[in-house]
Amino acid sequence: MEDAKPLFSIIRQFHEQEKLVAAICAGPYALAKAGLFKGISYTATIDYQKFDCFPVENFVYEEVVQHSNIITAQGHAFVPFGIAIASYFGVADEHNTDFYCGKGNVVMEKLLRENV
What we know:
alpha+beta, single chain, Rossmann fold, three-stranded mixed beta sheet, 10% strand, 116 residues
């Protein structure tokens, strides 16, 4: 982990500059090592109890957890994670969100209506 110290420093800088810091699956480990989970909720797909860098009391088992500019997600929640990132940047729209959440494909629905 000695080699990763510059990475942890960059993560802290991004957080301090209020840039988005996001991680999915076991990726939150790097955020924990950077000290970002002190006093905030997070999620991860990792045995967080085996790593002293994770504040166990702040872990929540949810698909996606967002606190300010920090977004974490369970590994299986890649679609909600992507939507959370798009929402953070203000580029998520209802059509795309519905499509990626499996709530409808307007292109296919239009083709079906036109050809039936």
